[in-house]
Amino acid sequence: MNHFFTLAPLMLLFSACVSTTTPHISSHEPDHSFSSIIQRCDSIDIEQTQAIKQSDDIGLNPNSISLLNWNTYKGGKKNWGEDFHLLSQHKDIITLQEARLNKELHSTLDSLKLYWELTTAFLYNEDEVGVLTASNVSPSKLCSIHSHEPVIKLPKTLMVSKYPILGHDKELLVANIHSINFTLGIDKYAEQINVLQDVIKQHQGPVIVAGDFNSWSSSRVEIIKQFEQVLSLKSLQYQNHNRTTVFGYAIDHVFYRGLTPSSIETPKVDSSDHNPIMVNFSVNHLQKEVTLAND
User: Fold this and answer.
1) What is the CATH number of the domain that holds 162?
2) CA gap 216, 214 in Å, rounded
3) 44 located within any domain
4) What percent of the chain has pLDDT over 70?
5) Using one digit for the tens of pLDDT, what is the confidence trace for 64-81?
6) CA gap 287, 280 in Å, rounded
7) What is the helix, strand, coil percentage profile of the chain, to 5?
8) Is residue 277 in some structural domain?
C-alpha cells in the first residue's frame, strides 16, 4: 500500500534496505529454475513474443479457474507464510504484488508445484521484490513493464501472461499490476495504465486484470473506469467488501472479460496491509473450439 503520507519514513527504510537491479524475469517450473532478461511489453508486440512449446492436452480447465490476488507487503508481517500457504491451496492462478522472493515464498511455491514468474522491481535485503504470477500450467507467452515512481524513483512493475485453455484455441490473458503510487498529479499513473491497455487491446480472448491499483483518489478511479470501458472489462461484484481502502477508495481490483465469476471472497488478514481477493471463473463460450486430445 505504501501511502504517500508515510513517504518520509519509507525513504529512510528504502535507503537502508533497498538496492536496484537490472530488470529481468525470474522464471521457475517444477524441478527447474532459471532467470532471463526481461521481455518488455512496451517495446514489443506480445503476439510476437517467443511462444513456449505447449502440449495439446495441457491447459486451464475452462469450467473452473480459481484466482488468488494479494499484495503481500513483502512478506514482512507475522504469520504471512502460514496465511499464504492456506490461501494458495487449490488455486490455478496466483497474482502477488510486493512479492519478496525469499526462502519461505520459494518453498511454498515449490510445495504447490506451480510455474511462476517474477518481474523484479528492486532488491530488498538482497531478495528480489516485484509482481509474481504463479499458475498450474506454464504460460505460453509473457512480457513485463517497468514504470518508475516519479518521487521515490523505484520501479513499479506489471506482468502480462497468456495461458492455454483446454478445448479452446483462444488463450487467457492475465495481467498482474502494481500501480504507481507517489505522484503529485496523475500523468505518470495514467501513462502506466495506458501502456497496459495498449497491450491488452491486442488480445481477442478472455482476460483477467488483477492487482494493487493504488486507486486512492477520484481522478485515479476515473482513469480505471476508462480503462474498463475501453477494454470491455467488468468489475467483480463483492458481497462482503473487505478490500483495503485508502481515503475511502478500494485500491485492489480484479477485472475480467469473457469469463463468469463465482465464489468471490475478500477475507480479512493481519499478515499484510492488504486483504486478498479470491474468485473462481468459468470461461464463456468461445466462437471457435479445438478438439481435445483425448476426445
Assistant:
1) 3.60.10.10
2) 6
3) yes
4) 79
5) 999 999 999 998 898 999
6) 22
7) 20, 35, 40
8) yes
Domain assignment present for 116: yes
| Number of domain units in the chain | 1
Kindly list the strands in the beta sheet with 234-235, ordered across the sheet, starting from the edge strand earlier in the chain: 141-148, 155-163, 172-178, 207-212, 252-257, 234-235
10 Å Cβ neighbour count for 57? 10
Q: Is residue 206 within 8 Å of residue 257, measured between CB atoms?
A: yes
How many residues would you count in the chain?
A: 295
| Pairing outcome for strands 172-178 and 207-212 | parallel
Query: For residue 288, is it within any domain?
Result: no
Q: Which three cell numbers stand for residue 153?
A: 524513483
Torsion on CA atoms 255, 139, 87, 32, rounded to nearest 10: -160
Report d(CA 86, CA 78) in Å as an integer. 14
Rounded CA separation 180/148 (Å):
8
Q: In angstroms, rounded to a whole number, what is the distance separating the alpha carbons of residues 145 and 160?
A: 9
Which cell numbers in the block locate residue 251? 485500491
pTM: 0.87
